[in-house]
Amino acid sequence: MAELEEKVAIVTGAASGIGRATAMRLARAGASVLVADLDEVRAQGVADEIVEAGGRALAHVVDVSEESAVKRMVDAAVAAFGGIDILHNNAAAIGKSSPGRDRDITRIDVDVWDRTMAVNLRGVMLGCKHAIPHMLERGGGSIINTSSGSAQRGDVTIPAYGVSKGGVDTLTLYVATQYGKQGIRCNAIAPGLILTHGVENFGGQQYVDMLEEHHLTPRVGQPEDIAEAVLFLASDAAGFITGQIINVDGGILSHAPPVADIRRMAAGHGLSAKGSAPEDD
């Protein structure tokens, strides 16, 4: 597989979860990858794994909320690999990781709101700001932002996270509009429930089982599902796709809210609710 041969990619939040899976997948497709994360040890581990498998990778420590740090990250990729073709803005501060702090609006901690916006939204903007000039030098590129289904629905918790991801969606449209004619495509992926250590630590198996009921697929997502979507959007196969927010979520947002309850009700009456609509009398 060499869809990305001679391409250079930056993946932020690449030390674990979706970012790690994406960095590994882009490297297997032939890209040289800057593995960027706050966690130096785990980022280095991912880079080492890529190199041991025959790929090209470099670990880099970055706080994406700081402009000088983002500029150093971009400069490091250019210095190591000669340019930038792909940027996966994936690093995020997730409100769920701060139990009880990213909560309903009247009780939210303002510092949590500000930090979430700084990482999730300003960090994406800064990545675009500093990578785009280098992409233009190479005739274009592909930017893939990690959004969330939380940007498309209300919830009883994590408003800062959801609002920040809504901002990512809008920013995606602006970047696609402003730089499309110059060869830069910009899209966002909105994952559903993806089984990462963070999700498992937050809610445990009961939380996963609850949300799994609401998926249309027979399973919940894995980081590799998002990595495959990123690979597609980064490749020439997606050359006519830009300015899109693509849900990779097992269909969790595509149906009426009571579907899971209807299934349970039907099962309780010995009926099937898997495929056919009720017939008129």
Question: How would you describe this structure in keywords?
Answer:
seven-stranded parallel sheet; 7 strands; disordered C terminus; globular; alpha/beta
Q: Please report which band the strand proportion falls in: under 5%, 5-15%, 15-25%, 25-35%, 35-45% or over 45%.
A: 5-15%
| Assigned CATH class | Alpha Beta
**Strand numbers in spatial order across the main sheet:** 3-2-1-4-5-6-7
CATH architecture: 3-Layer(aba) Sandwich
Whole-angstrom Rg: 20 Å
Average pLDDT confidence is 90
| Count of beta strands | 7
Summarize the amount of helix as a percent range: 40-55%
Give the distance, in angstroms, between the N- and C-terminal Cα atoms: 55 Å
Q: CATH topology, anyone?
A: Rossmann fold
> What does the overall shape look like?
globular
Structural class: alpha/beta
- Quaternary structure of the protein: single chain
Topology pattern, helix = H, strand = E: EHEHEHEHEHEHHEH
Given the structure, what is the number of helices?
Answer: 8
